[in-house]
């Protein structure tokens, strides 16, 4: 059995404060996180410092930073208008500025990738985290590996027998490696000390290898469930003085049980009637390294609307839909001081791949809920929509927000506090999660 192995060495140089492109990207997104947090905290001084670094890094990385420049000029203009006061304020945390790099070093950074036909195939990667998936269609077989926080400005294409190898920049911070063929082939990889090793066998030899039984360990998926509001924040108050915070917590607990039965690892941002700030909810999900973040809420209709009803599922994304914007405003009451420009900056920060995955998750969960609930109850399909919900800002995984029904609708207000109806919502969400992972393992 002949093994075909190639050696690739990635050299990523230049950064804002080191000599690597990888660190440049990491610093760029680090400053974005600092800027977003300063927006939410209304910390103008930190905003200006973070924006200055974002602009400098963005110019070198050739990113579109026009929104950042506009915001920076606006903040600086406020400084000129406002007279200086003698009041002492706690100084913001110092942000280390990126070091500029000399032209001679830039010229030396032109060799990004070297390919050698030595064993084994070895690729230096920024961390031990990569994403691998397989695509199988008629006469199309692909093995894909995504390397996060990496960059290669040079496109690579090589033929390895009947297999084609391609390496290219997939998005701003991901390098994609694709092995493709019109026939099945055997492929495996492993990571040791930030080195990616891959192994190929020609399509002709695939049948022999396929007969060998393979065992693999699949990590249990981690789900974070976020019952909205809580404590001093009651959320919406509906017909009969029914509080949103109580309904969503009840459904969250039932959903947690359903998911645990299916083998998922489940965490709740709150399991009692306590108040948790929005940014701490997403931080909790990131700390748990969750695969999905699901925030549960109930809808409240404006007084001028005649008792609307139905279930709606939202994912974080810019939108011009006035209805979605109105719903988001109700859920975003905790966040103050975010004008339109601030919102644009934050939404531009979003990772496009995560928006797409969140949209897919929202569709599967919406369908799962409707199928389960409609076995006994009539419920309107309110649809899947993009909206700027700030509870979803900062999540590092697909994230959605579910509006389970209207507390201002006399029928749905009673249902949302009915144990059977709550159980059906929970089962529907769990089935939707199953369906999502079938399509996106």
Question: How would you describe this structure to a colleague?
Answer:
The chain has 441 residues and is an alpha/beta fold. The chain has three domains: 7-14 and 107-210, Immunoglobulin-like, CATH 2.60.40; 21-80 and 90-98, no CATH class; 222-439, Aminopeptidase (3-Layer(aba) Sandwich). The protein is 37% helix and 23% strand. The chain is built from twelve helices and 16 strands. The protein has helices at residues 21-40, 44-61, 66-81, 103-108, 206-210, 244-261, 278-287, 322-331, 340-349, 352-373, 410-415, 419-439; strands spanning 7-10, 113-116, 121-124, 131-137, 140-148, 156-160, 163-171, 174-181, 186-192, 195-201, 222-227, 265-268, 292-299, 311-316, 381-387, 399-406. Strands 12-11-13-16-14-15 form a six-stranded mixed sheet, sandwiched between helices. Mean pLDDT is 75; it is low at 1-19, 98-120 and 206-217.
Quick take:
The protein is of the alpha/beta class.
CATH H-level superfamily of the largest domain: Zn-dependent exopeptidases
Give the end-to-end Cα distance, rounded to a whole number of Å.
Answer: 30 Å
- Continuous helix count: 12
| Overall 3D form | globular
Count of DSSP strands: 16
**Tally of separate domains:** 3
CATH architecture identity of the largest domain: 3-Layer(aba) Sandwich
Order of helices and strands: EHHHHEEEEEEEEEHEHEHEEHHHEEHH
CATH topology of the largest domain: Aminopeptidase
Low confidence ranges: 1-19, 98-120, 206-217
CATH class of the largest domain: Alpha Beta
Rg is: 25 Å
Helix/strand-derived class? alpha/beta
Largest sheet: 6 strands, mixed
Whole-number average pLDDT? 75
């Amino acid at each position: 059995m002949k093994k075909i192995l190639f050696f690739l060495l990635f050299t990523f140089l230049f950064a804002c404060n080191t000599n690597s492109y990888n660190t440049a990207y990491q610093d760029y997104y680090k400053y974005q996180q600092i800027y977003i947090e300063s927006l939410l905290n209304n910390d103008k001084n930190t905003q200006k410092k973070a924006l200055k670094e974002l602009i400098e890094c963005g110019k070198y990385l050739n990113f579109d930073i026009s929104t950042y420049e506009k915001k920076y000029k606006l903040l600086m203009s406020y400084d000129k208008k406002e007279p200086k006061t003698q009041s002492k304020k706690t100084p913001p945390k110092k942000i280390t500025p990126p070091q500029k790099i000399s032209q001679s070093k830039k010229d030396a950074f032109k060799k990004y990738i070297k390919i050698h036909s030595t064993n084994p195939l070895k690729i230096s990667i920024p961390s031990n985290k990569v994403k691998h998936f397989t695509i199988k269609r008629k006469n199309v077989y692909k093995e894909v590996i995504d390397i996060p926080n990496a960059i290669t400005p040079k496109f690579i294409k090589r033929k390895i027998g009947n297999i084609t190898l391609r390496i290219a920049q997939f998005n701003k911070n991901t390098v994609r490696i694709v092995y493709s063929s019109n026939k099945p082939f055997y492929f495996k990889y492993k990571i040791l000390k930030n080195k990616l090793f891959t192994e190929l066998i020609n399509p002709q030899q695939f049948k022999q290898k396929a007969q060998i039984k393979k065992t693999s360990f699949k990590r249990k998926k981690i789900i974070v469930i976020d019952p909205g509001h809580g404590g001093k924040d009651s959320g919406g108050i509906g017909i009969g003085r029914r509080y949103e915070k109580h309904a969503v917590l009840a459904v969250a607990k039932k959903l947690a049980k359903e998911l645990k039965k299916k083998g998922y690892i489940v965490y709740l941002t709150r399991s009692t009637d306590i108040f948790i700030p929005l940014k701490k909810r997403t931080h909790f999900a990131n700390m748990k390294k969750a695969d999905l973040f699901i925030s549960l809420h109930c809808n409240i209709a404006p007084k001028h609307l005649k008792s609307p009803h139905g279930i709606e599922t939202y994912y974080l994304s810019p939108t011009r839909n006035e209805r979605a914007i109105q719903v988001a405003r109700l859920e975003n009451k905790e966040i103050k001081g975010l004008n339109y420009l601030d919102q644009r900056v934050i939404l531009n920060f979003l990772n496009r791949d995560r928006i797409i995955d969140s949209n897919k998750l929202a569709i599967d969960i919406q369908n799962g809920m409707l199928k389960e609930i409609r076995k006994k109850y009539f419920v309107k399909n309110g649809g899947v929509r993009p909206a700027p919900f700030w509870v979803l800002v900062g999540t590092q995984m697909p994230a959605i927000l579910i509006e389970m029904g209207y507390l201002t609708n006399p029928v749905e207000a009673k249902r949302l506090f009915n144990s059977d109806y709550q159980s059906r919502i929970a089962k529907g969400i769990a089935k939707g999660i199953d369906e999502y992972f079938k399509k996106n393992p």
